[in-house]
Amino acid sequence: MDKLREEGYLLPMRNDAPRLPIGVFDSGVGGLTVLRALRRRLPAESFLYLGDTARLPYGTKSPQSVERYALQCTRQLVARGVKMLVVACNTASAVALEPLARAWPGLPVVGVVRPGARAGCAATRSGHIAVIATEGTVRGGAYQRAIQELCPQARIVARACPLFVPLAEEGWTSGPVAEAVAREYLEPLFPPGDRRGADAPDTLVLGCTHFPLLAGAVARVVGPEVAVIDSAQTAAAEVADVLEREGLGAPQGTPEPTRFLATDDPERFARVGGLFLGRTLAREDVAVVDL
Fold this sequence. Notes:
alpha/beta
């Protein structure tokens, strides 16, 4: 703990905490779907977003490296004054929440995995839940473990959908290409029509922050009888609950403009990030930081 304090990792006490921004970080632009959900759910709040674009993707890195990256990203956000941290990255949520909570004991920390798992457990009627994510997230088993802890009797099937990531980043989120890819990935789990048995999953968790952009294509493939859980929306709901519980909600009024930080290639961050935010993001809106 002393070493963390010496290196500037510990959170300073602030009396004006409700007026401070909420810090959000991800390995890149995917976490902007979480930011978008947060802004809709909490219109009075201000936000500071950091995308660690120089070291993405986190899913291919060791847990030790991801933990170190998460500590470094959070240090940048804390140094700029944040009242709460949202880890908008599935990989970092799986391995770094406890180290972050130990390093900043006064800072509320919310990840994306557990809220999504909790919502999946609440939505299922049969206890049969499907999770789609990147290969790294599926292989790491974070959602499977979280769902099993919350619903010990649940049956879980997980499927990697890696092509959803480039489709989202290219803006190909609807139309024949997106639906064809979604069908290829999902029909083995959710066969169409008469081929779908009563034992098919009744709930689908979107376990990657890129995937909400393809939610429409996904829903058309799985059908209206399947509950589709957006981890960005569920994380935003949990943040709202924590703010209320901790008395950290911002006063009503106009929030400060959202600030964006990236560790590399701000031009691409702005171009692709605009797709995720649903609005234009200029290069000048993104500051480059060195971790």
